[in-house]
């Protein structure tokens, strides 16, 4: 049997309370002239007091016993009981219903925090391939220690933080850094727990245990951020404790003074209870969590995630924004933005796409998409291989081809910029990535590749400026 979370149980109790309020209201007002209406009214209000009052009363008594604090829970329950005692059970039920809904909103916010932590925990692989002298052995990730060497196969998640010992390949680090483009890693480069090895076999030396890993630190940060209350929440809690004492003391004093003035016991109790009900802090209890939760939900629907109310309220004072450009302000997908070549563009693009067909790099994917968009069939390229940090070389029907940057062009005998055609040199002056295609010392052409801005980026940046943000990076 599945154990109900605090969020689920709170939602069920709030639903029962609301249902009881509806039934009780209909019975007392809509069908008051019928026997069944009176019975339904009593049953509905009893359900409200049980589902809404008992949990709140238990919380209040626990807080009073453990923390020696009179909180708003206690005030609400006493006010509801006092209302019932003087014949105004419906008014007390309204208080309990509103209070139950408020508590449900708070539990929902706390549930979001728990789910965020669980999502981070789910990123962690359970086992790793430990490299030993006699071969590899699958071990629990918790058994890994700094200095151990693990083997990463294509598609595997990195089990712990470490440094690449042998091999090179692309890793998807979006879960950790938010970078949507794969990151090419060479020996000596750091790798982080929960990132994904895309296309190569790597040996990684463990640098930190699981308790000190990147994901462990992220979980700690998320937990701390969710536990931090917003200024308005802290003020509400501070004010609520003192307000509870004032109202309870005031009601007792009012009862005593009314008795001293000669008012009857019933009349004095009724007026003291009226003070309790009228002074019940429904607005204080409901307004702050409801406002914060509504804002968090609205932001989430727009694709913005806050780690709690404190972060949300801090945003009002922010005057500087720093964006991770790739995948945030841009589409996160490279596209060919320019092409210069000698001869026909289709023949040039066919050679370049044929060579890049052997690479999983985002730039190679952009070239292949450009060829498909133009209806170009890539030529067959054999013996293609990647040159670290410089891109690709291979052989087509006419001989060796290379595709890469100026450093690779120099290696292939072009002697750098001296023989780069002016139109290609002009392409390199922009912010786009330049990829040249050549055969030996001859440059056949070049393309520029860029991660294009999202359609909504400009409007978003303008809106930030209008909201008072002075600096955007």
TrEMBL record:
<dbReference type="GO" id="GO:0019829">
    <property type="term" value="F:ATPase-coupled monoatomic cation transmembrane transporter activity"/>
</dbReference>
<dbReference type="Pfam" id="PF00702">
    <property type="entry name" value="Hydrolase"/>
</dbReference>
<keyword id="KW-0460">Magnesium</keyword>
<dbReference type="GO" id="GO:0005524">
    <property type="term" value="F:ATP binding"/>
</dbReference>
<protein>
    <submittedName>
        <fullName>Cation-translocating P-type ATPase</fullName>
    </submittedName>
</protein>
<keyword id="KW-0547">Nucleotide-binding</keyword>
<dbReference type="InterPro" id="IPR059000">
    <property type="entry name" value="ATPase_P-type_domA"/>
</dbReference>
<keyword id="KW-1003">Cell membrane</keyword>
<dbReference type="InterPro" id="IPR023214">
    <property type="entry name" value="HAD_sf"/>
</dbReference>
<dbReference type="GO" id="GO:0005886">
    <property type="term" value="C:plasma membrane"/>
</dbReference>
<dbReference type="GO" id="GO:0015662">
    <property type="term" value="F:P-type ion transporter activity"/>
</dbReference>
<keyword id="KW-0812">Transmembrane</keyword>
<dbReference type="InterPro" id="IPR023299">
    <property type="entry name" value="ATPase_P-typ_cyto_dom_N"/>
</dbReference>
<dbReference type="InterPro" id="IPR051949">
    <property type="entry name" value="Cation_Transport_ATPase"/>
</dbReference>
<feature type="transmembrane region" description="Helical">
    <location>
        <begin position="38"/>
        <end position="58"/>
    </location>
</feature>
<keyword id="KW-1278">Translocase</keyword>
<dbReference type="InterPro" id="IPR018303">
    <property type="entry name" value="ATPase_P-typ_P_site"/>
</dbReference>
<keyword id="KW-0472">Membrane</keyword>
<feature type="domain" description="P-type ATPase A">
    <location>
        <begin position="123"/>
        <end position="222"/>
    </location>
</feature>
<feature type="transmembrane region" description="Helical">
    <location>
        <begin position="269"/>
        <end position="296"/>
    </location>
</feature>
<feature type="transmembrane region" description="Helical">
    <location>
        <begin position="78"/>
        <end position="101"/>
    </location>
</feature>
<dbReference type="InterPro" id="IPR008250">
    <property type="entry name" value="ATPase_P-typ_transduc_dom_A_sf"/>
</dbReference>
<dbReference type="InterPro" id="IPR023298">
    <property type="entry name" value="ATPase_P-typ_TM_dom_sf"/>
</dbReference>
<dbReference type="GO" id="GO:0046872">
    <property type="term" value="F:metal ion binding"/>
</dbReference>
<keyword id="KW-1133">Transmembrane helix</keyword>
<dbReference type="GO" id="GO:0016887">
    <property type="term" value="F:ATP hydrolysis activity"/>
</dbReference>
<feature type="transmembrane region" description="Helical">
    <location>
        <begin position="12"/>
        <end position="31"/>
    </location>
</feature>
<keyword id="KW-0067">ATP-binding</keyword>
<keyword id="KW-0479">Metal-binding</keyword>
<dbReference type="InterPro" id="IPR027256">
    <property type="entry name" value="P-typ_ATPase_IB"/>
</dbReference>
<comment type="similarity">
    <text>Belongs to the cation transport ATPase (P-type) (TC 3.A.3) family. Type IB subfamily.</text>
</comment>
<feature type="transmembrane region" description="Helical">
    <location>
        <begin position="243"/>
        <end position="263"/>
    </location>
</feature>
<dbReference type="InterPro" id="IPR001757">
    <property type="entry name" value="P_typ_ATPase"/>
</dbReference>
<dbReference type="Pfam" id="PF00122">
    <property type="entry name" value="E1-E2_ATPase"/>
</dbReference>
<dbReference type="GO" id="GO:0030001">
    <property type="term" value="P:metal ion transport"/>
</dbReference>
């Amino acid at each position: 049997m599945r154990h109900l979370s605090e969020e689920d149980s709170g939602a069920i109790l709030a639903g029962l309370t609301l249902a009881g309020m509806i039934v009780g209201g209909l019975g007392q007002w809509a069908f008051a002239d019928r026997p069944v209406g009176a019975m339904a009214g009593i049953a509905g209000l009893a359900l409200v007091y049980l589902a809404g009052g008992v949990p709140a009363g238990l919380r209040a008594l626990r807080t009073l016993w453990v923390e020696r604090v009179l909180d708003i829970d206690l005030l609400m329950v006493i006010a509801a009981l006092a209302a019932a005692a003087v014949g105004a059970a419906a008014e007390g039920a309204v208080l309990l219903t509103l209070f139950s809904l408020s508590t449900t909103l708070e539990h929902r916010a706390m549930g979001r925090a728990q789910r965020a932590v669980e999502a981070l925990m789910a990123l962690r692989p359970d086992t790793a391939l430990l490299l030993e002298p006699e071969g590899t052995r699958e071990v629990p990730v918790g058994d890994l220690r700094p200095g151990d060497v693990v083997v990463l196969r294509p598609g595997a998640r990195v089990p712990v933080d470490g440094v690449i010992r042998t091999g090179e390949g692309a890793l998807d680090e979006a879960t950790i850094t938010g970078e949507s483009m794969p990151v090419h890693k060479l020996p000596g480069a750091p790798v982080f727990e929960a990132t994904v090895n895309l296309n190569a076999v790597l040996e990684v030396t463990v640098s930190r245990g699981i308790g000190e890993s990147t994901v462990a630190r992220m979980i700690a940060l998320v937990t701390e951020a969710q536990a931090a209350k917003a200024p308005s929440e802290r003020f509400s809690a501070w004010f609520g404790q003192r307000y509870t004492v004032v109202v309870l003391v005031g009601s007792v004093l009012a009862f005593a003074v009314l008795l001293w003035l000669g008012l009857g016991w019933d009349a004095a109790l009724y007026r003291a209870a009226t003070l309790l009900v009228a002074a019940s802090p429904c607005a204080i209890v409901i307004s702050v969590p409801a406002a914060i939760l509504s804002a968090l939900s609205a932001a989430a629907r727009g694709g913005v995630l806050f780690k709690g109310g404190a972060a949300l309220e801090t945003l009002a004072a922010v005057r500087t924004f720093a964006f991770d450009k790739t995948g945030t302000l841009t589409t996160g997908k490279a596209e060919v933005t320019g092409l210069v070549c000698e001869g026909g563009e289709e023949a040039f693009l066919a050679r370049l796409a044929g060579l890049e067909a052997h690479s999983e790099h985002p730039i190679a994917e952009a070239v292949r998409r450009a060829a498909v968009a133009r209806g170009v069939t890539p030529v067959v390229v054999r013996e293609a291989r990647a040159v670290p940090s410089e891109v690709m070389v291979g052989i087509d029907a006419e001989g060796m081809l290379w595709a890469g940057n100026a450093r690779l062009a120099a290696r292939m005998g072009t002697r750098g910029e001296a023989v780069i055609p002016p139109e290609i040199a002009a392409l390199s002056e922009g912010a786009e990535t330049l990829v040249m295609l050549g055969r030996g010392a001859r440059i056949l052409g070049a393309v520029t590749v860029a991660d294009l801005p999202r359609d909504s980026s400009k409007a978003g940046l303008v809106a930030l400026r209008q909201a008072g943000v002075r600096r955007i990076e």
